[in-house]
Amino acid sequence: MSLLSLALPALFLATTVLLGGTAAARDLHIDPSGQRDGSGTPLRDGEDTTVFRSLQAALEEAPLQGGERIFLHSGSYGDLVIEGQHPERPVSLQPAPDAQVVADRLIVANSSGWYISGLLIEPQTPIEVTPTEPDRGTPGFPSTLVQVGEATRDIRLDGLTIRSAASIAGWGESEWIERAHHGVFLAGRDLQLRDSTIMHVRHAITATGQGVRVEGNVIDRFAEDAVRALGDDGIYRGNTIKNCYSLYYHHDDGFQSWSRGADGSPGTGVVRNVEITGNRIINFEDPEQPYRCNLQGIGLFDGMYENWTIANNLVVVDHFHGITVMGARGVKVVNNTVVDARPGQPGAPWVTVVAHKDGRSGSGNLVANNLAASFNEGGFDARGFKLDPEATTFTHNLRFEDARETFEAPERGDFRLRAGSAAIDAASPDFTGPSEAGRPLGADPGPDLTVDLLGRARSHGAAPDVGAYEFLR
């Protein structure tokens, strides 16, 4: 993760103040009507050369010097495309104050050093999509609303609203197939998606690039996978995933990953150095939700997975795959709470780490301080998975049978520990310490296991508590 990608807004401010002999940064305004200046005042022809009718016109007629702020005024922009733009200093793209801005799609290709914030991405007209080989289990030919391509670097997306439509009221199978698109595709290096809302989509986020950071986002009402974490060095922290829909065959996952070898085949490579921490995965909020899916929580089915940390997550799903890792080396699964969203079939969700699908053994894995109804440390041969007992240490995990005796108010979705819960003071402090030292200067410090899902310090009692939440006396 580069320093630039961690601090685009700060760098933008610094470069506009510390000019270092370069020209002062400009404010550029995009007004589809061509009638207003930066303050909204009507213009006469040729009066202001910093106002353009489109982003493309601005980039062509006013080559970037670096450090610019580009303001979008109210209007519908169709596809916003940034291609071949590598400013020396970060450039920001954002709505003008009080502007109502909507774009059909956001496409960033072969570019770097952009901070894009506050936009609504929602198609206003049908998107013309060239038919290709459909994704497995995905009928029709959906587009992707936000695309950040392979040749990009240091792009930050912040505070976006991304949706196929404003409402899905009355949608059935045909509407989901014909109108729902994928949300975000992140293929470049050191990309960030923060504090955004992705809703009414199929796959919400697919990340294939290295060093992708996905933090503080809400994914709501989706029909396939919420997050596909496929690149090395990724961080997925503090996201909320909720309300999965199922209208055609597809095994839907909160988080899914698979490795890819030289030929791209699943399960033939290694995905390294990924953090999934502090996330909430909620199968459904309304028990009467139509087309409710059986969501798999965190499903890592086609390893190998190397040096992953899965910690402080709340997983409430109606599937036996609560947290499943298949083919792991140096994977830590620590202090997660995994709950059955609906008793009965297909069964209580488990937490487990087993061998690769092809039978390869892993090594050096840890499953500790987790709270769930099931742990398959002995394996589950009946489902065709290979046991790997020497590869993983299971310790200080706690099974619960009655959610009402364990959690504060499970019927209301409150899975904090209640007074008297057996999970209180039952964890090992050996696995709740700070992240290991030795990271490069300026790098992300890594997962903080000294706090719980709510950011509260652990070990308020004789010992830390099992699960994602620390009980406060």
Give Rg in angstroms. 24 Å
Euclidean distance between termini CA atoms: 39 Å
Helix fraction?
Answer: under 10%
Which stretches are low in confidence, meaning pLDDT under 50 for 5 or more residues running? Answer: 1-22
Cα shape: globular
Mean pLDDT: 87
> What's the number of helices?
5
Tally of strands: 40
Strand content: 25-35%
| Structural category | mainly beta
Largest sheet: 15 strands, parallel
Describe this structure in words.
The chain is mainly beta. It is 7% helix and 34% strand. The protein has five helices and 40 strands. It has a 15-stranded parallel β-sheet that branches. A hairpin with a 4-residue loop joins strand 39 (407-409) and strand 40. It starts with a helix and ends in a 56-residue tail after the last strand. 47% of the residues are buried. Mean pLDDT is 87; it is low at 1-22.
Q: Can I get a quick summary?
A:
With 473 residues, the protein is mainly beta. The protein has five helices and 40 strands.
Core attributes:
473 residues, mainly beta, eleven-stranded parallel beta sheet, 5 helices, 40 strands, globular
Describe the SSE topology.
Layout lengths: L2 H4 L1 H10 L9 E4 L20 E2 L2 H7 L7 E4 L2 E2 L2 E5 L7 E5 L5 E3 L1 E5 L2 E6 L2 E2 L22 E5 L4 E6 L2 E3 L9 H7 L2 E5 L5 E3 L2 E5 L3 E3 L5 E3 L2 E5 L4 E3 L5 E3 L2 E5 L8 E6 L12 E7 L2 E3 L13 E7 L2 E7 L2 E4 L3 E6 L1 E2 L2 E3 L2 E4 L9 E5 L10 E4 L2 E2 L1 E2 L16 E4 L2 E2 L3 H4 E3 L4 E4 L56
Parallel strand pairs: 1-2, 1-3, 3-6, 4-7, 5-8, 6-9, 7-10, 8-11, 9-12, 10-13, 11-14, 12-15, 13-16, 14-17, 15-18, 16-19, 17-20, 18-21, 19-22, 20-23, 21-24, 22-25, 23-26, 24-27, 25-28, 26-29, 27-30, 27-31, 28-32, 29-33, 31-34, 33-36, 34-37, 35-38
Antiparallel strand pairs: 39-40
